[in-house]
Amino acid sequence: MPNKVEVQVRNMHLNENLEDYVTKKAAKLDHYLPAIEEARVELTHYKTARSATDRNVAQITVRGKGIILRTEERADEMHAAFDAAIGNMQRQIDRYKGKHYRGRGDGQSAADLTRETPVDETGEMLPLIGRRKKFMLLPMNEEEAIEQMRLLGHDNFFIFYNGETHKINVLYRRRNGSYGLIEPEVG
Question: Does the global pTM surpass 0.70?
Answer without folding.
Answer: no
